[in-house]
Amino acid sequence: MEITQFSMEEILDPTNIIEGKRYEFILDIEIDEDDELYHEAGIEIRVLIGEKAGEPYILIYFIMEKAEGEYLDFALEDDELEEILVFCKEEITKA
Asked: What is the pTM of this model?
């Protein structure tokens, strides 16, 4: 799994109900053809990141097939989630 492109947006809470910050990442993922997640049109992972006391963590993620915009019912492995979290932490730090 390789992240080829991404977008990041801070989710603002005008009510101040949510503690900490929230970010939405949309990650374009390149996947090997022999992987069960492979789709010809490509895969996106939508990740919501929370941040408390300066420490980001994954709130939830969704895997989507790009051509149809359909959600795929797959769970990522722990090492894949860690890779995504490290990537997101780096991008939040740069922002």
From this structure: 0.89
